[in-house]
Write a structure and sequence with these properties.
By secondary structure, the protein is an all-alpha fold. The protein contains 19 helices and two strands. The chain has a two-stranded antiparallel sheet. Helix 2 runs antiparallel to helix 9, helix 7 packs antiparallel against helix 15 and helix 16 packs antiparallel against helix 19. It is a multi-pass membrane protein. It is found in: Cell membrane.
């Protein structure tokens, strides 16, 4: 037995439907639920970046060095990325409703305490608990979304919009953090996750009524695989994150990366032999799913690169204050919004893979424009075009890839799909930034290094688009 849900209306609405035959109330409830789930998903990503701009203020308040600030930032992302696969399997085993409730309460409670943390280590613990709650919540959101749209075609259309939700959350976090920190305090950034978590919990619990649903799929729990995957991904991410603070020759960097990779290879080996694998090998061998996950990883990497490098460039080389730096990314957010609204129509007309390929090529154009950056680059003529074009293309990639990655997902694997997709989204910026910053470090001049990183990323996008074109005939799903 597995908890499902039905979408309910109030008595007045139900009476109106019986007398008039109108379906407005149920439709409105579905829209309310989709919007609620989408806002929660966006907030999970918002919480990653919400302390990026305020980090200097946090460092000043607690007297921190740069490496300690990195741990504040990574304290959320490490458990989030490391526990997503386990969160997905727990969702499929115990139901999306139960895991959603547990995850959101944990996430919201930690966020509330984050407003009042007295010291550095308490803040790190709060961020870790937030990330753990997020790792439970994200796969559960996918499971609830899949149940909300049981028809595959309806679910595909929903995913076309859902694909861009996360990156919009990241953009909102980057924009609002500068404003809130300037006018209030970095502590007030935690109020947004608190409100979203508990209001979202009330809406979902009220509108989704639990039912008992028969299912033939009751997956076991691969504890050994969960331990290997979580520790492998976390250690790998930890090493990459600290590669920005220490040389690759430092044991904390290469040791963490190598041990993480070995643990993950061991995990993949174990998954071939266990009865109920955490990540069934067949799940990622699907060509459409593999391309979708790769697209999400690449798009997330590009977005992480642009926010990181351009925020550094504007503040350190152009002398912009944090508030102005946040405002500089308004075109970035507009590019995401415009194309996210158009993505669903484009996917329905042309195919998810076509939209993904076009998005990769558009993103590459934006990256090549940014590759021309120099110390005298003017914002309006030198940065603005790339700041709009790259996210516009990335929004198409996210939407098309989300449809590909979740096409024909059965209900009993929806949590797994959510865990895998969010893992790709989390690892993209970590892996991409570490690799491209290593490329940038080959240049003597820092800004020349930034340009080389943007140009290299653009070339990777073009190669990825060409590879996707070669795979086109193998993708049969009419996404």
């Amino acid at each position: 037995m597995n908890d499902g849900f039905t979408v309910v209306t109030d008595n007045a609405a139900a009476s109106h439907n019986r007398t008039s035959g109108s379906q407005d109330a149920p439709v409105n409830n579905v829209r309310l639920l989709f919007s609620t789930l989408a806002v929660i998903q966006a907030t999970l990503i918002f919480t990653i970046v919400m302390i990026g701009v305020p980090l200097p203020a946090i460092g000043t308040e607690f007297g921190l060095v740069q490496a300690e600030l990195v741990l504040v930032s990574a304290g959320y992302g490490l458990p989030f990325s490391g526990l997503l696969l386990l969160g997905g399997r727990l969702t499929d085993r115990y139901s999306g409703r139960k895991m959603f409730t547990l995850g959101v309460i944990l996430f919201g409670t930690a966020s509330l305490y984050g407003m009042f943390v007295p010291d550095y280590w308490t803040l790190v613990v709060v961020r870790f608990i937030q990330g753990t709650g997020a790792a439970m919540t994200a796969p559960a959101l996918m499971a609830l979304l899949r149940q909300l749209y049981p028809d595959s075609a309806d679910f595909g259309r929903a995913m076309a919009t859902w694909g861009g939700v996360s990156v919009l959350g990241g953009a909102a976090g980057f924009l609002s953090s500068g404003i809130v920190t300037h006018w209030l305090s970095w502590r007030w950034m935690f109020i947004i996750p608190v409100v979203v978590a508990f209001v979202g919990l009330v809406i979902v619990r009220k509108v989704m009524v639990a039912t008992e649903e028969k299912t033939s799929a009751q997956p076991g729990l691969d504890l050994g695989g969960a331990l290997l995957a979580s520790s492998g991904i976390s250690l790998f991410s930890f090493g990459l994150i600290f590669s920005g603070e220490y040389p690759w020759s430092a044991p904390i960097v290469w040791g963490s990366v190598m041990v993480g990779l070995l643990l993950f290879v061991a995990f993949l080996s174990v998954e071939k032999r266990v009865s109920f694998p955490l990540l069934p090998p067949r799940f990622i061998h699907n060509p459409a799913r593999a391309i979708g996950l790769a697209g999400i990883l690449l798009a997330a990497a590009g977005m992480g690169l642009i926010t990181f490098l351009l925020s550094l460039y504007l503040q350190q080389f152009q002398g912009w204050p944090p508030l102005a730096t946040s405002m500089a990314f308004i075109p970035y957010t507009l590019g995401l919004l415009v194309m996210n609204r158009a993505a669903g129509t484009l996917i329905a007309r042309y195919h998810a893979l076509t939209v993904t390929i076009v998005g990769l090529l558009i993103s590459a154009v934006g990256l090549f424009l940014l590759a021309m950056i120099n110390p005298e680059t003017d914002y309006m003529t030198g940065l603005l075009p790339g700041l709009f074009i790259l996210p516009a293309g990335a929004s198409l990639v996210f939407s098309g890839s989300a449809v590909l990655a979740t096409a024909n997902i059965p209900l009993h694997q929806a949590g797994l799909a959510g865990g895998v997709m969010n893992t790709a989204m989390e690892l993209g910026p970590t892996m991409g930034l570490a690799a491209l910053m290593a490329v940038a470090a080959t240049q003597v001049d820092v800004i020349d290094g930034y340009g080389l990183a943007f140009g290299t990323a653009g070339c990777i996008y073009v190669v990825a688009a060409m590879a996707a074109i070669l795979c086109y005939r193998n993708i049969k799903s009419p996404c």
